[in-house]
Design a protein that fits this description.
Blueprint lengths: L2 E8 L2 E8 L5 E6 L4 H18 L4 H12 L4 E3 L5 E3 L12 H4 L17
Antiparallel strand pairs: 1-2, 2-3, 4-5
Length: 117
């Protein structure tokens, strides 16, 4: 069996893949931290945390907002919608920072939010 390793970049995500020349099969060996699969998993965990535990308390919410307010990655729209340009999420209703601030398991990709316990 002859294999070769390939590094792929698809839609901004990096994958290390091996190809079996006999079968043509491609197998993913590793991928970067933020891949579509990881994003889906992180999103589901964040949404579930709010359903199970309820929204974070006001002090945490205010600390998250303050961290984003001065951040170079924060994209503030004129309509009052804030998005993070660093997290890799698409800009849709559930990825607005105002929504993420309330989710206990949501995290800042730059590590600027206080830890929720």
């Amino acid at each position: 069996m002859i294999n070769r390793n390939i590094n792929l970049m698809l839609n901004g995500f990096k994958y290390e893949v091996t190809q079996n020349f006999e079968t043509g099969e491609l197998k993913v060996l590793s991928f970067g931290k933020y891949t579509p699969l990881n994003k889906v998993s992180d999103y589901a965990r964040a949404e579930a945390s709010k359903l199970v535990s309820g929204p974070v308390g006001l002090p945490i919410l205010e600390a998250r907002r303050a961290a984003c307010e001065g951040c170079e990655g924060c994209d503030k729209k004129a309509e009052g919608e804030w998005y993070c340009d660093k997290c890799g999420c698409p800009k849709w209703d559930r990825s607005r920072l105002q929504v993420k601030w309330e989710m206990p398991a949501a995290t800042c990709p730059l590590g600027k939010w206080p830890e929720v316990r």
